[in-house]
């Protein structure tokens, strides 16, 4: 695993927004968004290798299971 697994509430909001945006943009813009996620310390490949993509629902599921945690 390359990234972090604990995020602040602000970072969680940023990650959710970026994941939503990823689903709506073309592939040329996706790289910029993935770079933004990596700067936060979030790497999609730490959690999914699915060709269908990693969604906000996937993120929220991992947050509820404790795979991804809120920073205190």
Q: Explain this structure to me?
A:
By secondary structure, this protein is mainly alpha-helical. The chain is built from three helices and two strands; from the N terminus they run βαααβ. Helix 1 runs antiparallel to helix 2.
Based on the model shown, name its key terms.
72 residues, mainly alpha, 3 helices
Explain briefly what this protein structure is.
The chain is mainly alpha-helical. The chain has helices at residues 9-24, 27-40, 56-65, and strands at residues 6-7, 69-70. Helix content is 56%, strand content 6%.
**Which residue ranges are poorly predicted, with pLDDT under 50 across at least 5 consecutive positions?**
none
Report the end-to-end length measured between terminal Cα atoms: 22 Å
Q: State the helical fraction.
A: 55-70%
- Write down the Rg: 11 Å
Question: Which series of helices and strands comes N to C?
Answer: EHHHE
- Number of helices in the DSSP assignment: 3
What structural class do the secondary elements suggest?
Answer: mainly alpha
Q: What's the domain count?
A: 1
Strand content: 5-15%
Give a topology summary:
Layout: E1 6-7, H1 9-24, H2 27-40, H3 56-65, E2 69-70
Parallel strand pairs: 1-2
């Amino acid at each position: 695993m390359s990234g972090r697994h604990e995020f602040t509430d602000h970072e969680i909001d940023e990650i959710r927004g970026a994941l939503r945006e990823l689903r709506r943009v073309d592939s040329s813009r996706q790289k910029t968004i993935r770079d933004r996620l990596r700067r936060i310390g979030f790497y999609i490949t730490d959690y999914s290798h699915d060709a269908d993509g990693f969604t906000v629902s996937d993120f929220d599921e991992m947050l509820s299971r404790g795979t991804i945690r809120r920073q205190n």
